[in-house]
Amino acid sequence: MDTETSPGVNRKNKRLVPIKSDKRPSLNEKVVFWTILLTLLLCHAVLIMNQRLFPFVDLPYHLSAATIIKYYDQVPAFQHYFQNELSLKANSFHLFFCISPLWDDIETANRIFYLIYIILFPLSILAMIRVAGGQYWFSLLGFVLLYNYNVIWGFTGFTMALPLFFLLFSLIILAMKKQTVLLELWIACLLCALFFMHTIVTVLALGFSLLAQLAGPSVRSAKNWLARLAALSPATALLGYWWSNHSPPSFNAWEQITAYYQNDFVTNWPERILLLYADNYSLFKGWPGQIIGFVGVLVILTPLIHSLISRKRMRPTQCSKPIRRFVILSTIVLLLLCLFAPHGIEPICWYLYPRFSVLCLIITLVLGSLFHQTRLKPVSVILICLIALCFLMLWADFLQDFDRENLSFQSTFLTADPSKRMAGLMYDFLYRASSAYIHFPNYQIVWNRGIATTRLVEYPFMAVSRKTDFQELPMYHEWITRDNPYDGRYRHLEYILIRGTVPEDDLDEFQDFVVIKQSGQWSLYQASQ
To answer: CA angle, 519 as apex, 518 and 524 as ends, to 5°?
Structure first.
């Protein structure tokens, strides 16, 4: 039988020597684990594939970008209002995936995109734990963070970058055990793939690839360093080419970031409390969502906390010291990013630090799994499965209830005339604790291939940009609040889509409009002349 070793005492010479103990899981245990894992994956996959509308904040304008590019030559209105920039683009995987001729329509492609993410995310966590030598049952806790901050905010590139980053992390650990040309080639390929997912994750992955060399056994080997630097070169070249050719001339990142740390960092520090519940708080509005988010964080930290407070000193036996050192350093680096990363600097640093929360927590989960080499007690396994099931049910209710709430929001509710312009005012943009409705006017582009005011054309790194002036297509009024009231910029347009109740202070702006459709919270106003 396969055995491992753990510290013990030899009574004859009173020295610490290895004691044999059976710690490898039985075949039946593996069958049970894979049955549970695949069942959870299947449930989440069915949930995603049956979802009509996703409460992911920025997703609608990503879908509209794909629609504009895919049908650009067929829709004259697109050619009049927008222009495409399809040169080498970072963060463009979701776009090109959705416009692929493999799919019948954009929304089907988008569902398959999220299906791939749903499958890869838990499996990539399992891969990290297995290659590092940790307790694989803890990988099921990864389902707690499946619909993390990046997913809910519709950061499509960052979302798909997460499982790729974890797979890269696994390859780096394998290379620490035995560095080969094939592994370095795979690392180079994944780094290049990450470039098309998200540049920030690519830069982070490049840094971790170097960190592994510093923490690994081959830190003094010039040959291994050359191999790793060669693997990093293609992605580094892509980043350099993209930044030099596509950075807007008016955007000086370093000056803005320096000014932020000099002036705003200290005053914004209290906002970092969001890190305690960032990845699940959207489930419920107010303090219930914050409690659920905090519980999710606590669940992920439990394996590591238990190993630190356990009376018996828990020694990792399958994990070498260099690998353990690398995982510890990675956890520290990601924690520092969460605590000190800037935010509020558009277009690259808007609420940046919560994006790293899921990375930090998952790597911490891997670290905690390294200190639990023995088989878990049945009660621990049952508890882990119940936690994964509980969060599945919570998110299933969240997604399905969103669809039920928007049964009346169909393509027929919007204007079918592509020559007319439709603006959007989302007075009530919240779904539970998520700003899910902010970009819903983009569905006029996605469903009817019409023209709508969209935030899409205001971001310098997007593949679609504005072609007309702000009079012909006004800037989308994204956040309608008391501090940012409607200023009447849409009064000359043909249609206005409204969600919620128009405040009394704004009623004068709608004197020349009449309501032609209304259902629930949704109203469509048409210019009377």
So the answer is: 35
